[in-house]
Amino acid sequence: MNQYRDRRYVFAAAIILVGLLFMIRLFHIQVMDNSYEQYALSNAQSVRTIYPARGLIYDRTGKIMVYNKAAYDIMVIPRQLETFDTTELCAILKITRESARERLSSAKSYSYRVPSVFMKQVSYENAALLQEKMFQFPGLYVQTRTLREYTSPIASHALGYVGEVDQDHLDKDPYYQMGDYIGVSGVEKAYEEYLRGQKGKDIFLKDVHNQAIESYEEGKLDVSVEVGKNLTTTLDMELQAYGEELMSHYVGSVVALEPKSGEVLALVSAPSYSPDLLVGRSLGVEFGKLATDTLNPLFNRALMAQYPPGSTFKTIMGLIGLQEKVITKKTEHHCYYGFYVGNIHTACHLHETPLNLIEAIQNSCNTYFINVLKSILQDVKFASAAEAYDNWRQHLLSMGFAQSLGIELTNELNGNIPTSDYFNRIYGENHWNYLTIRSLAIGQGELLATPLQMANMAATIANRGYYITPHLISEIEGEESIDEAYAKKHYTSIDTSCYGPIVDGMDLVINGGAGSTARNAKIEGITVCGKTGTAENPHGNDHSIFIAFAPKINPKIAIAVYVENQGFGTTYAAPIASLMIEKYLTGEVKRTWYENWVKQLIQPVAPARKKDSIVNDTLQNN
Amino acid sequence: MVQRNRIVANLDWVTILLWLLMISFGWMNIYSANIMEAHGGIFDFSQRFGKQLIWIGASLLLAMLMLVLDAKFYIYFSYLLYIVLLGVLLGVLVFGKEINGARSWFIIGGFQLQPSEFAKPITALALANLLTSHNYNIRRFWHLIKAFAIIAAPPMLILLQPDLGSVLVYSAFLLVLFREGFSSNIMMMLAALGLLFFTTLLLEKALLLLILFSITLILSMIIARSFKKGAVNAAIVAALFGILFGVNYLLQTEFSLFVLGLAALTPVAVIITINGFRLREYVQMKILAGLLISILFIISVDFAMNNVLKPHQQHRIYVTLGIEDDPQGVGYNVNQSKIAIGSGGFSGKGYLNGTQTKLHFVPEQSTDFIFCTVGEEWGFLGTSFVILLYVGFLLRIIVLAERQRSSFSRIFGYGFISIILIHFIVNVGMTIGLLPVIGIPLPFFSYGGSSLWTFTMFLFIFLRLDASRLELLR
Ligand SMILES: [Zn+2]
User: Of A307, B307, B413, B447, whose Cβ has the fewest other Cβ atoms within 10 Å?
Assistant: First the structure.
């Protein structure tokens, strides 16, 4: 057989070749390719997440508004699943086998290795029962989380809600993992980073059955859990609740500020909804219901509804006139049922004539303020009406109009003050004058402001010339102070001295006896200063407006009230503002009959109706 | 005593040293793969490393026993042992205990024994006996069939149990036949069929047909030294295929491209056959026959894959070939194994410091996947060491086998080499993701008494024969 001796070399060559081949392959996976080390690490590491309790939210008086309750999620890690008795699992969780199968397959499609939620928020009893039998269900575990709970069903627009993190945030912020909760709107969103705290991480070495074997690197890389920071809001729970109660029959908004600090005392948007609805498992369904409601309760009118300021704007016209020295508080104008130039006509109502500035505010005379606009735009300091107009607009910008003020909530809208370019485009350059845009003088036309901007305007007048950006949070636990932006005084371009006559006029609006347009807002013992208004509404009945602050000296509250489709400001807006002020300043409301009337327990004397208008102007601005 | 001393003197101590290195390094890794802080010392016999110590101790005794027996004993009793073996294999089918779905175990006094392991050296003995029997000629058909029968009988019995690995292992005995003069053409043909087997699984059948047809065409052109005939045949086939494809499309029948291709080939094949007989162009006919055999093979492999193999077996083969991806299922083992080895880096995580193997991410980490522990804890240095150890060991055995005066000893030696080689290739290839996951142990390394004893007996029978290498035994 030795004729085949040489075949031993084939064997030797084959053996050497195999050895070489293996060594090349091993060199590749062991030395060249480093990815396996990463895989190995993620294989053996088990990160146990500990969810912190979310920060609590207190009102300005220290009463708790928002707290937490425990919730139990059943989590699944598909890779660790072994066959188990689905029947028992389904029986404990009260779900069908199909449902269980669907849940598993959706978890698998997300990831085999990363835990995903198998079932959200099971009851404490079920979670406890399941926890006991957990050894029977490898791959499943109970994760404790917290859900929001509210002491009172109020302030949903300001507080916002907490929901499951969306893909967008998952992509942007590595802090979040599928199924985590995040502030979706309101304060919950704005202060998410404080409220959420810091998830804790215990890193274990685990075996293939996910049994923790030992702490990884002796716990050096663990992250200890940090409870969320508590917040104190500027809201007054009682005032907020009272405002929501008063507005419960209306559509509209109430914003109350503390003038000297810019703190929001109440932020009402009606209709509202209970914040309880948007918690946990019910969120999806309830959100759908709210979103399809024709009155749009999810819409935060306080920040997002843009209305014309109506006659309340006359206070601003007076301020700018005084500042530009085109009028004094003594300047008088005649008015006989309105303003007439040629065939141009803007109606006014019956009042004494002539009126000076203070009386014109008291009586809300349209003619007077069209004349103020005339004086402003025909000011010889400026080369053209457009130039004078832009100067006028600058003053408004300094008061916070036509811009978002910068409250913490992100959905605030800008409102609108048209630029001179806008009119140049419509009428042609030098082809417009005070007559063309006279409706601006009485707060109509293209002017738009949000209730928050209107309340800010009231606060600015109350402060006689400055405002502090309205804000909802006054204290963050563990932080020395809140954002500096919420402490800075924004001085308007109007001198403090100009505010006196306007404040006097606003005093007379309520406390001036005959000729006052809002005598019904009077509160015994408190000098309330205010101004009524009516916002033209092309879609239906006009909106009732009232701005006010009180007391006259050292004001404690500034307020703006919009009541949609309720006509004159006097009818509902003024009483609501008055009641709010009373409530805030005295702690109780003595005028219960008045309260009842606002709440429509008593039929209103004069039901609101749409007034006929002449040449598109208001017939009457009270 | 004189004879005993001669045996000791004639023993190949290099091989014994390599063997000791392998079993001790193997045991170290088994210890590492199973060590948990809670356990007692190395003599904790409730643990695998403790049990393995017993197996090692017993295998030392077995080794001595093998050396004490007379060399002639192995020759005289080889057939008898073989027949007893077949009986035992039958017995295990009937009385054996089922473990992991395979009825291939005997339980004796709390220890599990797998008789199919012991079949390997006994088959090698019987084969050596046959090949050295008087007047035996491997080039004779019936003689060759006898050899095949001896090789095939144990795995046939084992095949009745679902143990694919053993079947694969026995095919390694063909290498012994090769050394003893088995036609290298047939060896190559078998290799070609093996290649065709994998390409059938990997490629579309129609594409494979196209490739085979092209090869046939080119071969026939080269042999006929004429381009014209081949081109005409190709054109006819292409035209027919085009027509058939069009008809299939128009009638919306659902014949596969493979079937259409076969149909297009048939007339040309018939013409060549007729011409072949007429013009006596036998070479062309041989080439054509090769093509036909290949096609038949493809069809039968395809049929076997889809109708004979169980779904999980199909799946396992597909995953191994990279056709299907399944990191959680069948692919999980390979994936985890690669991760463990790959994470070892150049010099490893240090002895007893592996995480993947110790935390049980690697399945069977002390039996079939023991190589992972080496890779993870000792790194590339460790794995290279093991591979070089095997290469050195096998080359040493070749040297020993070739120095025998007796053909019997040489053939038995090559039987040992072939079996160790196939285990080495399949086991290491499996752990580093080059070959399918077929559960066979790494000789001398893997945990388990049956395999350790088998390979030890195998080795020491050969060393006993080698000690008598100067005698003409047969
Ligand atoms: Zn008037």
Answer: B307
